[in-house]
Amino acid sequence: MVINSAVFDPHADLWSAPTLVIDRVSAEKGLSRYIAKLGNPVPSRMADGRLQLFFVTVSIGGWAGSSISTMI
Predict the structure, then answer these.
(1) Chain segment 16-34, per-residue pLDDT in tens
(2) How far is the C-alpha of 62 from the C-alpha of 13, rounded, in Å?
(3) If you placed Cys at 54, which of 19, 42, 62, 65 could pair as Cys (CB 3.0 to 4.6 Å)?
(4) What gap in Å lies between CA 49 and CA 23, rounded to an integer?
């Protein structure tokens, strides 16, 4: 499972090629715990212009054992 990103160019009316934001293995390393699934990404622009990404990580126990993670 991965979360990708793409950028829309309104002048060309085209999307860029997708780029990897985070995958399951990177999430496991960053969070120091087992991750079975990740998804439901929600980007948010911070006041200083940076992007913050919220996403759900699922460990053991399915969605009942899920948590919301974030990265900038």
Answers:
(1) 999 999 999 999 999 999 9
(2) 39
(3) 42
(4) 24
